[in-house]
Amino acid sequence: MLLQLNNIFKWVQSGGQRVFLLKDINLSVEEGEFISIMGPSGSGKSTLLNVIGMLDGFDEGEYNFMDESVHTLKEKHRANLYKQYMGFVFQAYHLIDELTVKENLEMPLLYNKTSSSERKSLVADSLDKFNIVGKKDLFPSQLSGGQQQLVGIARALIASPKLILADEPTGNLNSKQGEEIMELFKQLNADGVTVIQVTHSEKNAAYGSRIINLLDGRSV
Amino acid sequence: MLKNNLKLALRFFNREKFFTTINIGGLALGFATCMILLGYVSFEFSYEEDIENVDQVYRVITKRSKNEKTIQEGAKGPDRLAQVAPDEVPSIDFATRAYYEPCLVRSEDKKYANQKVYWVDKDFLKVFKGSMIAGNPETALDGALKMVITKSKAYALFGNENPIGKTVKVNEGMPFEITGIVKDPPANTHFKYEYLTTLKTFVYYNWIPEKGNWNNNAYYNYIAASDTHSKKTIEQALNSLALSRVKPNENDGEKLEFIVQPIKDIHLNSHYSDEIEANGDLNQIYIIIGIGVAILMIVFINFVNLSTTLSIRKAKDTGVRKTFGASNYQLKFQYFVEAFLLNIIALLSAAILVLFSYSFIEDIFNISLSFAMLINPVFWLWAAVIFSICVFMVGFYPAFILTSVNVTTAIKGKIIKGKSSNTYIKKGLLIGQFCASIFLTIGAYVVYQQVSFMENYDLGINNNQVLILQGPTTLNAAWDDYDRVNFKTQKFNLFKQELLKNPTLKEVASCLNIPGQETRFGYNNVRLKRGEDIQSKIALWHVDEGFFPVYEVKILSGENFEKDEKRQKNEIVINDKARKLLGFSTTKDAIGETVILGNGEWKIKGVTANFHMKSLSESILPTFFANRHPNEFGYYLVKLSPKNLTKQIAFIKSKWQEIYPEDPYLTHFSDNYFNQQYIKHKQFGAIFNALTILAILIANLGLVAMISLNTTEKLKEISVRRVLGANNKAVFVLMSKTFINLILIAGCIATPIAWYFLKNWLNNFAYKIELHSTEFIIAVVLILTIALCNILYFVLKVLRHNPATIIREE
Predict the structure, then answer these.
(1) Which of B91, B144, B253, B573 is the most exposed place for a label (fewest CB within 10 A)?
(2) Residues in a beta bridge with B466
(3) Which among A58, A89, A110 is the top mutation candidate for probing chain B, defined by the most B β-carbons within 10 Å of its own β-carbon?
(4) pLDDT for residue A159
């Protein structure tokens, strides 16, 4: 068991009333799974992903990640946990504009204080693996959307996380680029990385081993 | 890691070129201003540092009072003091008198007028230690007709020859032997002598007795103490000395007191009468330091506001970095690397700016800058510490904003948390900036008004087209040497006759002192022949019958002097102030009355209207005018016609050279001379103006950046409003509303403060402008207009966009 959510509630206070973003979510994810979260706009897909990624808190319920109960952890421990085990991929890639491809890949390693030599070899491996060695000194603005997302995924994987969280990773891409990225996720999953993606598209969802449908913050 | 941080910082500057340039530009201008001000202030505080053991050297201020009322308090004092002080007061090692006269100095082939000659005692060089280059300080000034001169004067008179042992002639031809050479006095001393000669010479010529007395105020007195902490003891000892020599009960209650003044305090803290030069004013220095701090504040507010807003623009990146594991500490460190880099670049630019501009600035403001502190490592240590503290202080808030972002919202490019407090702080800082701008604008305007008020004030005399010629120094005579004085007078009469042959020259006069100068004679009391003593400061001017017509002074009652060829009559003309002092209710009552001034009896011949002989910082004194031709020095006045000045002046010059072949022809115009009294105020006004313009410029740089960012933030809102039908005016109002409010609030805060400070400043002047609300309104309107012009520019820029495209992009 990689992670388990039990009766998760999340709400905001609006005009004296609780508006639920997540309502009684129960979910357990095994290592090696490829899960797709689907649902219409405003159904709570991204919120759920952020809660899983510990970027966002929740108001009620329990969350266990690798046998640690996240809801009782202090902020600092929680940060250490997601730094170590999770990688994020965004719809808008969110590469840092003034860093080159190589430096973007290096960034997470800088923050977890990997030594210089190790950083170099990890970045080199990653460039090699994703076949972007030739682009290592280019800036994001010099890359196509598909290439940017490739770098985004490479960056998410550089610290060897157990879990990849992807928020509509193909949303800004055309269908051909999107397909390539999905193939890549499939490949990664086959290599043992657990993937949770949020998506609108049935076709992309089909890459996964399991689909979770949300509506108004509720699992259906 | 640090290398990585630096690289990131440079790339960020590159991305935000516009804001980085504004930020660095503003900081650099501010830093450069502060460096210049530091140079200025450190020069002003460095006075007299060249004197060895400067902490042991004092000047003695003389204070005379009668029945607890101060009659006189001045830098000059009695000549007995320095003669007895070293013997009578154990902690005084040496003392010297100094007497100043601008003299004519001649070598065999060269002639220089108006030289700064000081007549001193033999121990002068032991009080003012460390200046001797050649000669023996023990003997150089011991004896009559000995002279020590400065290096540059030695060169001017004798070129590269050794001047020691050579002879120069002074004024009418006194021969002095050069016995020593001293360093040129530095710019930072109040006492800038060119020649030192001995008071023994006066004794030698029998002009003064060997032994001085306690009842005159003719000499500056300087003393050297044996240690640095005996100021109090010396003051007490001198005062008991004075009490034992001038006994109040035998002297009509007149009391003599001394104030011992450290020589280092003279330049900025001393405003007694008879100062050697117009001293600086500590308050003005503080005001200038205050403006410097205000500019620094404006600069740092720019920095904080810009950085904060840019932090928000970086929110997305920050969010991403946090997602990938950046800790707050790491993000803050990155931010401070940026902040330091920015400030250091600005500091270096400022240093370069100062390097290239400082001599130019010294010239236009007529100030001296001193950067001597740069060789002091302690200064660098302090500078580094203060600089770091400043950067940390101004960097703290943007860094806090930067790291307080909520990751999930930040990734979407928005900051929600902290937004409201953020805008309050930003607004508060902007108000602070506007306050400073408004305050300085009002100040600059009022200072300018006061200075031009003084320059254009109706002095009661007509200063225009009055040419002043310096009297013939070679004809100087002792006052009781009647033959020589008569000779001088006859020559002047001839000169006058010759000049008046030219019909364009209207009037010629002679006088001892000219308007704008300290009078040489003054009294502390006067008495009507049939009345009591009246205590007051009274000026006595030696003039002739031409003086009042030259200056077009109104005579209210009685008449002007008659031209007297032979005997000088004991008649005086008084001004209206003196008439009041003497207690006459009308000007007519005074005519024919006799007053006793000093030892003489004088009959009042006329009463003139009050007019200003000195700058408007001083009130008009009760003044007596005596008809005397100046026995030594003095000035000749010629009233010219307004047209063809060059021709008239050429004529005067040729006549002068004909009649006074030995004396140099030295002239200036009376109005220029008079206005020189305002030079310090004008200088202050000019510095104030320049700093104000600079402050407004820097504040404006920040304002442009803020408006630009504000426009970007509001672009969507404006577009939506335009789609919904807002016209151009509405857009302008929307964008300017906040800034107008802020400026009005700032105006409400700044004007009372400005009013308070300016009122205080104006109290330095006996004649001053009134403060009106106009000055305040003009300043606020000016700042408002500048801000609105900036906003207008950005509004026009926004209006060029098609609102539909902007909305679609969102």
Answers:
(1) B253
(2) B639
(3) A110
(4) 86
How far off is chain B from A56, nearest CA to CA, in Å?
Answer: 7
What residues of chain B lie within 8 A of the CB of A79, using their CB?
325, 327
Distance CA B406, CA B411 (A): 9
Task: Tell me the backbone φ, ψ of residue B135, rounded to 5 degrees.
Answer: 105, 170
Sign of torsion, CA B400 B405 B411 B414? negative
User: What residues of chain A lie within 8 A of the CB of B320, using their CB?
Assistant: 90, 94-96
Any CB–CB contact under 8 A between B323 and chain A?
A: yes
Among the partner-chain residues B316, B326, B327, the one whose CB lies closest to the CB of A94 is B316
Sign of the C-alpha dihedral, residues B148, B154, B158, B162? positive
Q: What is the residue-averaged pLDDT of chain B?
A: 88
Question: How many helices (H) and strands (E) in chain B?
Answer: 24, 23
CA distance linking residue B264 with residue B58, whole number of Å: 8
Confidence of residue B810 (pLDDT cuts 50, 70, 90): very low
- Angle subtended at Cα A144 by Cα A142 and Cα A149, rounded to the nearest 5 degrees: 110
Flag whether residue B11 sits within 8 Å of chain A, measured between CB atoms: yes
Taking 50 as the pLDDT cut, the residues of chain A under it are none
- Tracing tokens 């003719």 back to the chain, one arrives at B218
Instruction: Give A34-87 pLDDT, tens digit per residue.
Output: 999 999 988 888 889 989 988 888 999 999 998 888 888 887 788 788 888 888
Q: Rounded to whole angstroms, how far apart are CA atoms B134 and A5?
A: 97
Q: What is the 3-state secondary structure (H, E, C) of B166-232?
A: CEEEECCCEEEEEEEEECCCCCCCCCCCCEEEECHHHHHCCCCCCCCCCCCCCEEEEEEECCCCCHH
CB-based contacts of A174, cutoff 8 Å, min separation 6: A145, A146
The secondary structure of chain A in percent helix, strand, coil, rounded to multiples of 5, reads: 40, 25, 35
Q: Which residues of A touch B323 (CB under 8 A)?
A: 53, 55, 88
B324 at A interface, C-beta within 8 A: yes
**Which residue's structure tokens are 């304002």?**
B703
* ipTM of the modeled complex: 0.79
Nearest to A156 by CA among A203, A211, A70, A94: A94
Q: CB A55 to CB B4 under 8 A?
A: no
Given an 8 Å threshold on Cβ–Cβ distance, is A111 in contact with B1?
no
Residue type, B443: G
d(CA B315, nearest CA chain A) in Å: 11
Strand partners, A211: A36
User: Which residue of chain A comes nearest to B14, CA vs CA?
Assistant: A98
Asked whether residue B482 carries a pLDDT value surpassing 90, the answer given is no
For residues A49 and A165, is the Cβ–Cβ distance under 8 A?
yes
B224-277 pLDDT, tens digit per residue, is 999 888 899 999 999 999 888 888 777 777 788 999 999 999 999 888 877 888
| Structure tokens that stand for B349 in this block | 């630019």
Does A206 lie at the interface with B, CB-CB under 8 angstroms?
Answer: no
Beta bridge partners of B527: B533, B596
CA B348 vs CA B342, B396, B579: distances in Å: 10, 23, 65
Distance (Å, whole) CA B175 – CA B173? 6
What is the pLDDT at residue B786?
Answer: 92
Quick one: which of B124, B60, B66 has its CA closest to B272? B60
pTM exceeds 0.90, yes or no: no
pLDDT surpassing 60 at residue B602:
yes
- Judging contacts by C-beta atoms under 8 Å, the chain B residues touching residue A154 are none
Angle separating helix axes B728-762 and B773-800, nearest 10 degrees: 150
- Does B408 touch chain A if contact means CB atoms closer than 8 Å? yes
DSSP per residue, A165-214: EEESTTTTS-HHHHHHHHHHHHHHHHTT-EEEEE-S-HHHHTTSSEEEEE
